[in-house]
Amino acid sequence: MNGTPRGLNRALLAIAGLVLAALGTGLAVLAWVPAVALRWQDWAGPQVAGLSALAARTRLAPGAGSWIWLVVAACLLVLVIAMVAWVANQGKGRTNILFQRDGAADDDGAAGTVVLSSAIAEQSLKAALLERGDLLGVSVTSYDFRGQAAVRVRVLPRQGVAPHEVAADIASLVEAMDTLLGVQVPVLLSLGSGPRSRFTKAERVR
């Protein structure tokens, strides 16, 4: 529902995983196969000597460093900026406005705008769900979905709780909220599961 680039994230994770797996396999082979280690040393020696010669030819001034290191630093800076932009692009799509309407013809003619905050739906749904003893966790957030505000409700039921009963109760709460606000809000319901729901004991009511 949010603006997280999931496809790009999966592609980057797959590439990073393949690169790390290849590096790990190569290091393991170098450590356990002497013949491969000798070939690596024979190949790496001339490469290091060539890099040293290149650094000597590209010095900015006698006794100074090579300008190649400036290029490397610039590339690393670009990489850092790209990583910061990638992190900042995660989880976008949140909205603070649930509903907005300008003055209509059936109003009294006064100019103005009616704005409902997303906190109204989030706090009302979360407060109602937190009163339930069969839920371990509740998260309610609002997102801008295709130009319209939508609410995402994620709950973590206790072990043994019927999911369809929880979904039906939440649907009733959403209908009551729509009736109260006079606006039909799209809601995405997510029922989660995890170690917390499996290892937490059910509370007994006496």
Description:
With 206 residues, the protein is of the alpha+beta class. The chain has 2 domains: 6-88, no CATH class; 97-199, GMP Synthetase, Chain A, domain 3, CATH 3.30.300.30. It is built from 6 helices and 5 strands. The chain has helices spanning 6-32, 34-57, 68-88, 118-130, 163-181, 195-199, and strands spanning 97-102, 113-117, 135-145, 148-157, 187-191. The strands form 2 sheets. It has a 3-stranded mixed β-sheet with strand order 3-4-5, with helices on one face. Strands 1-2 form a two-stranded antiparallel sheet. α1 (6-32) packs across α2 and α4 (118-130) packs antiparallel against α5. The longest helix is centred in the N-terminal third of the chain and has 27 residues, at 6-32. The two termini are 41 Å apart. The model is unreliable at 199-206 (pLDDT under 50). Keywords: Membrane, Transmembrane, Transmembrane helix. This is Alkaline shock response membrane anchor protein AmaP.
